[in-house]
Amino acid sequence: MFKLAVFVLAVVLSVASAQTSGNYYTFGPSGIACTVGNTNCPHFFLNEVNGGAVHVPIVNFVYSNANLDPVVVQGGASGEVVLFGAVNGYDFEIYEAYRLLPLISGAPTGALYTLHPSNYMCPVTGPCYRLKALALNNGTVTLATSYTEPYSSTISFIDTNWLADRIMASALVQGSVIGGVFTATGVYVKVDDQISCPASPQYMCAIGNVRAYNRDINRCWTLVGCVHSGICPHFLPACAAGYDLISVPSAPNGCNHFYCDASFLTQKH
Questions:
Q1: Using CA atoms, how far apart are residues 248 and 224, in angstroms rounded to an integer?
Q2: Sequence-separated (6 or more) residues with CB below 8 Å from residue 191
């Protein structure tokens, strides 16, 4: 019985490993006018990020992640979506998809990485390399003392707490190390960005009071309670192109706290 249990566990782990092994690619339309009935005509070309295979012909995208919306994934401009998955013949099985947070101008440059704490033992003197940049697909490691990103200073009302968390937890970051600092030129976040929000109790407030909320790093709303309704500014800020305005009634007087979230993200409450 023990040997059988070990065997079953090994098979499960093997299958799980096989399902998550893959590479990162950008994609674009093939530009080929496919004739009716030609089932092997490629609709897309894949390019492996950070070098590697280019113009890999793909007939179909297969979505193994039920949380991914094909319209959102394939709705990004060419080069602004990164797919993680595996090529299977003329099909590409998509495990995860990332979209570029819109920039004010220009396109990001540099290689694509994930950022992690380095657990580096800082010396008494000299630079402290607190970050580890891991290059996608090839695994090259580059150390950095810190990072900069272009959004906080250019995208009004972007949720900087959410952005900082995603950069270090789940996003793909494009850029390079300059003078020991990782200089990000673009950030790609998960299309699904799925973290379940706890249910917030709903109840009526007394006359003259309104419900107030906090928004956490997962963009979830948490009910603070009822607060006395005060005088609020009568204006709506404008978000940059590619972003939607989110209004969260907040303490101390129920006035809206504004955020600009990327339009492709599912809104949460």
A1: 12
A2: 68, 69, 72, 73, 97, 98, 99, 264
SS3 136: coil
In terms of residue numbers, what domain contains 238?
209-262
Q: Cα–Cα distance between 231 and 38 in angstroms, integer?
A: 64
Taking CA atoms, 191 is separated from 78, 81, 155, 159, 164, in Å, by 15, 9, 19, 16, 17
> Domain for residue 9, yes or no?
no
- Cα–Cα dist 82/189, whole Å: 9
The CATH number of whichever domain residue 84 belongs to comes to 2.40.50
Last residue of a domain, one of 66, 99, 132: 99
- Report the number of distinct structural domains present in the chain: 3
pLDDT digits (tens, 9 = 90+) for 175-207: 999 999 999 999 999 999 977 888 878 789 999
Residue pLDDT, tens place only, 200-209: 787 899 999 9
Do 124 and 151 fall into the same domain? Answer: yes
Q: How many helices (H) and strands (E) does the chain have?
A: 3, 16
Is the pTM value of this prediction over 0.85? yes
